[in-house]
Structure formats: C-alpha cells, structure tokens
Design a protein that fits this description.
With 681 residues, this protein is α+β, with helices and mostly antiparallel strands. It is built from 17 helices and 41 strands. Helix 4 runs antiparallel to helix 5, helix 7 packs across helix 8 and helix 12 packs antiparallel against helix 13. The chain is globular, with a radius of gyration of 28 Å. It starts with a strand and ends with a strand.
C-alpha cells in the first residue's frame, strides 16, 4: 500500500479523498493556487505544495506544475478527483512515465471512453444498448438531413468531443437538422478544436440514470446499483438519489451487467460510471462513460456501505476487489442536494464573497454497516443519516475562479419518503450567509409533488420553473405553524425586554396574552397561554397549537415542537418581528399587539427605489468590457457590458431603448451585487 498520495484537485473532493486516506493511514499532499492558500483542503492535508496563480489553466490543469509538486513531495500515487486532470490521458501517461500510480483507470480506457463516437462503437461491440444513430463522420448539412430522416425525428445532433451542453442541438425537422448541424459544428470547432459531429435518436421523456461500476486489474468487475440524476439545470446535475424510484430489479440487473461488460471491454480498473438515458418504457440507451469518480458518489456509498475512494486506492495499489457482486446489497435510500453559490432569485447567477456564516447540519450516522462485504445489523425505522461533503468553512472566501459548488448535502433513511423528510429538515437547518445560494430552491424541489412522486425527467426544472425561481408560497397550514411559533418566540423576547435593568421607577412593563401575527399577506389573531413546559397558542377560529422549544432570543436557528411535530426555522431579527426561512420560503413575520396591528394598517407602504434607468450589476464580478459610450442611444436587447464571474462571461443587455447618461465602471473593476454600472437619461 502507498505511504503518501497527492490529490491533484481542490475543494470538497480534495477534502473527501483526504478523509479516506487518513482512515487508511496514508499521508496526503495537497496542491493549491494563490486563491486557495487558506483553503480547507490545504489545512487538512499533511503537506501542501503551491502550484501557481488562481486561474486553473495556470495552476491546477498545468501538468508540468503538478508533476513538479509530485517530485517535491515524493508522493507514490495521485488521486485526480473529478474535473481538472481526472480524465486527461496525457496526465495519466506522465504519471506512468514517472513511476507514480494513477488512482484511476488505464490510459487506454480514458482515451476510448473520452471520445463519444469511439465509445459508442465499443459499447455496441460489447452488447450494450445504444441509441439508434449514425456514428460515422458526416460531411455536410445535406448528409445530416438524410441521416436524420433515416433515423426518424426528433434527433440529437452532437459534437463527438463535446461536453457541458456545447455542440448539441435537437432537430424536429429537415430545416432544424440543417441549421443544427452547422451550429453544432461551429461550436465544436470553437470549444474543443474538433468539429466532428454525429447524430442519434432523441429520446423523449428521458431520465438520466447511471450505473456505478468498480473493477480491478485482475479481471474482476461489479456494479453497485444506480443513481437517478434527472433533476438538472443546463446539463448540470442538482439533485441525485440512489436507488432510482423508476427502475425495477430486472432493468437494474440488465443495466448493471451491460455497464460491467463495457468496463471489461476496455480493461477498466478503478471506479467508473456508465451513464444511460432511460425512456418511459424502461428502454435504456448508453450515453457515455465517465472514467473517474463522480460528484454524486456519496449516495452510492450510503446505500451500499462501500467506500469508493478506498476501493480506488486499493485497486491502484494492485489489490483484488474484496467485494463480489453477491456482496452488493442496496439498503435504504439516499438523496444528495448540491449546494451552489448561485442566487436562484437572480437566474442562478454566480455569487462570490465571504461566508459570514456557514453552519451545516450535524453529520450523523444511522443504519447498518458493511464489514468485509457483509451487512452488520439492521437499520432502525425512522433512523436518518446526514452527510455533508464540503471544502469551505465559516469566514472563508468563495472564489470567482472555480466551480460554484459549496457542498453536497446527503441524507440516508430506510425509505425514500423518510430520506426526503430528512433532507427537508437538513436543508432547513443549514445556515449560510454572506453570499447568494440555492438552499431555497433545493427546499422547493424536495416539496414538489412531481419529485415526491418520483415521476420526473431531465426536463423537470425547465418545465416546472420556466420563468426561473421566484420563491415559495407556503400553504395556510404551514403558515399557522410558523405564526404560532413566532408568537411564542416573540413573547419570550418581550419577557426578556421587560427585565432590562436601569428602567424608570414606577414604570412596569407587562407582556399581554393577545397578539396579531402578519406573514405572507395573511394575519392571525392569537392568544398565548404559557407554562413551564411551553405555550398554547389559540387562534380566533377556536383552533390551537402547542409550542415547545428551548429557543432563546439571539439564536439564529430555532428547533420547535409544534403539536408533536418538529419545525426547524432559520431566524433573523427585524423591527417588530422576525425574518423566517423555512422550506424554501423567506418570510417577514411581524408580531404586534392588537392596537399596533390596527395602526400598522394605516402606514403607507414603502416602495422600493426606482432603478428603471440604471443598469445594476446582477452578481459580484469583474467588468470585462464596456460596449457603449456616454451619449450613445441604445436599443432593446443591445449588449451594454460583459461581467465575468466563476469562469462564466455574462453579457448584460438593454431592457429598453434609451440614451447612456453616465458610466460608473471601467474594464477591470470588481463590482458587488447591485452596484450601478450605467445610468440612462
């Protein structure tokens, strides 16, 4: 076994590998750029080597710099994580030439599966079900139209070397096939330097389901069930779960066996993932193979008890798999939500800055354990496990240079419904401040009827949130629970305020029993009767709720018992009440005495400032380019400027016709959210 491993990555995956290496007694070496000098993975590793400036193309993906770090540290093996150099055959070759083990598959497998045309041909030869299509080179648009008619519309036109949605078009007729061929070819040439195009049948109502495989260099291979990854946004996975709520045992077995057959066809040795598109009739078709550890691997670990990182290290060291297919049992259900530094209220634009508060829910273990390939014990009903894979900490910076993922929050429970409920509570308990993030959106997905039913496709987000995410409107039952809880909490705070020292003589302040609670456009008149164990909050319609909690004023997380059911809320202080965040909703809750409530109705509504003649920066970022000048007339849709954040360039366009009156920023300026870039007459 190795004595020292270098992790050629950063962030949460670097931290994840370090945890397993430490468990195995293996020393670890981190690499870091200038931007990551104070990163969590650097402090967790036994050693750390600086490799260059913040941009990844000057540090993390420069093979020579990583090789220098390996020589400096004397590492015997390298785990590449995912992204960066994880599927770079030249990097694997460089390691082999240096005599350093690559914790990943052989070079030949990386090369074969890295090309979509080659991989599909290999899959067909291995007996893997593939989407009907044409894998040869397509000369021109006329040939593309002919092939599309032979396959039958709709078709998917794809770049062979593509990824991330680039070089990809759906065509429903001859005209779209002709246009799509040329657009895909141009995008592929510009993005990948490879303009080869292929065409395949477009699967309607598709689900994205992938099989986790694990192989050694001795010819052994197994599959560890599947992961459902259908909830995606712009081809980026957001929610994953294992197993899939859609598959039956027969389909799972067929997909697993074909995935292993494909892996063996390229002499695969390591952990890998074979991705499939599955239609509504459970017909499945090979999509691609990822020759690395997947971001969503924790859900597989939670339902199988197999540490995939440990198995990758053991395989790289030449060991045989200690687990057979018969040892693999899928126990319970696991769900993963990816927490991104993206503001869902602003079209999921990247959000950078300092994490002024970062308090994930406590990680807990529940359920059975796998010991030497055998399950020990049974999972108690209702037991939950919470896992949070992360690479950040409170006070740390979210950089503009790298992927916006902050953490992967996972829950496990004996059943899918219990795992979803565990995730709801975990999301409600996750405290993140200082940046925009997608916690509210994730909470909304967990409560969405289509997700709860398990009946979703890869079009889920596009179909259910066509106009973007605008927050959550809670049902009245939930509002009553929150209103009663806030009334009880406000009463506690009022009692504390009556006990402040230094008050005037003969001025005793009493806390009444009658209150008015206003939230989400509704009002509830309540009466509170308190005792040592809690409070009973009675509504004007005769119903009541019993509230018990150890919350004290100043606590930013409230865990309450409401009529025997748990309620977890993030709590902020506002004038005359609280800012409450629960189940994706962000509420201003005002708790007033009856007379105060009467007077509040007479107060004029405060209107937001008029920004209609201003271009505001929608995210923290760097001004790359200003496309207009003072005095210039602009038309609706015209490009005004370009803002860069997290490796993405965002062109800001005019919403209406106007004349530029003032420009407040120059190329190279760093701006915060809502900074005024341009003013119009």
């Amino acid at each position: 076994m190795f004595n020292k491993i270098l992790i050629a990555n950063r962030g949460e995956i670097a931290c994840r590998v370090i945890k397993t290496a430490r468990k195995m007694g293996i020393g670890t070496v981190a690499i870091y750029s200038d931007a990551d000098r104070n990163a969590l993975h650097v402090s967790m590793a036994d050693e750390a080597v600086h490799i260059g400036p913040p941009p990844a193309n000057q540090s993390y993906i420069v093979i020579d710099k990583v090789m220098d770090a390996i020589r400096q540290s004397g590492a015997q093996a390298v785990h590449p994580g995912y992204g960066f150099l994880s599927e770079n055959a030249k990097f694997a070759e460089a390691l082999e030439a240096e005599g350093v083990a690559f914790v990943g598959p052989p070079v030949g497998a990386i090369e074969s599966m890295g090309d979509k045309i080659t991989s599909k041909k290999i899959a067909q030869d291995a007996g893997v079900s593939t989407v009907p299509g044409y894998m040869g080179l397509i000369e021109d648009a006329d040939e593309a139209v002919k092939i599309s008619n032979d396959i039958g519309y709709p078709v998917m036109i794809k770049a062979s070397a593509g990824g991330g949605g680039k070089g990809m078009r759906i065509a429903w007729n001859d005209e779209e096939a002709r246009e799509g061929f040329q657009s895909s070819k141009n995008e592929a040439a510009n993005s990948f330097g490879d303009d080869r195009i292929f065409i395949e049948k477009f699967v309607t109502q598709p689900r994205h389901i992938e099989i986790q495989v694990l192989c050694d260099s001795h010819g052994n291979g197994i599959y560890l069930g599947e992961r459902e990854c259908s909830i995606q946004r712009r081809n980026q996975k957001v929610v994953e779960e294992a197993p899939s709520p859609f598959l039956d045992p027969e389909t799972r077995k067929a997909m697993g066996e074909q995935a292993v057959a494909l892996a063996k066809a390229v002499n695969y040795a390591s952990a890998g993932t074979v991705e499939f598109i599955v239609d509504g009739e459970k017909n499945f078709y090979f999509l691609e193979m990822n020759t690395r550890l997947q971001v969503e691997h924790p859900v597989t670990e939670l339902i199988t008890g197999v540490d995939l990182v440990e198995q990758m290290i053991r395989v790289a060291a030449g060991e045989k798999l200690s687990i057979t297919q018969d040892d693999v049992a899928l126990t319970g259900w696991a769900i993963e939500n990816r927490l991104y530094a993206e503001d869902p209220y602003r079209g999921f634009l990247p959000s950078i800055g300092r994490l002024t508060r970062y308090r994930p829910p406590a990680e807990t273990a529940a359920g059975p354990m796998l010991v030497n390939g055998k399950w020990q014990g049974d999972a108690p009903q209702g037991a939950w496990a919470v896992r949070n894979d992360t690479g950040v900490y409170e006070g740390g910076e979210i950089s503009m240079y790298y992927d916006p993922m902050i953490a992967k929050l996972c829950t496990w429970a004996p059943t899918r419904d219990q795992a979803i409920e565990a995730m709801r509570v975990a999301l409600d308990s996750f405290e993140v401040e200082g940046i925009g993030h997608n916690l509210p959106f994730l909470s909304a997905v967990m409560d969405h009827p289509k997700f709860i039913s398990g009946d979703m496709t890869t079009a889920f987000i596009a179909e259910e949130y066509p106009d973007g995410f605008e927050g959550v409107t809670l049902p009245e039952e939930d509002l009553r629970r929150i209103a009663a809880s806030c009334a009880a909490m406000y009463r506690v705070a009022e009692i504390r305020r009556t006990r402040v020292s230094g008050r005037m003589d003969n001025h005793e302040r009493k806390v009444g029993a009658h209150w008015n609670v206003a939230l989400q456009g509704q009002e509830f008149d309540v009466r509170i009767e308190a005792d040592k164990e809690g409070a009973t909050v009675a509504f004007s319609d005769g119903t009541s709720l019993r509230i018990a909690s150890d919350w004290t004023p100043g606590d930013q997380l409230a865990v309450l018992d409401v009529d025997g059911e748990s309620l977890v809320m993030k709590v902020g202080k506002i004038s005359g009440g609280f800012r409450i965040r629960n189940r994706g909703a962000d509420l201003k809750v005002h708790v007033r005495r009856p007379r105060q409530a009467e007077l509040a109705k007479l107060m004029p509504e405060k209107l937001p400032p008029d920004t209609s003649k201003m271009l505001l920066c929608p995210m923290p970022g760097l001004i790359v380019k200003i496309d207009v000048e003072v005095g210039q007339e602009v038309q609706e849709g015209q490009a005004l400027c370009t803002v860069e954040a997290m490796k993405m360039e965002n062109i800001l366009r005019a919403e209406k016709k106007g004349v530029v009156a003032k420009i407040n920023a120059d190329p190279g300026d760093s701006l915060a959210v809502d900074d005024v870039i341009i003013e119009f007459e």
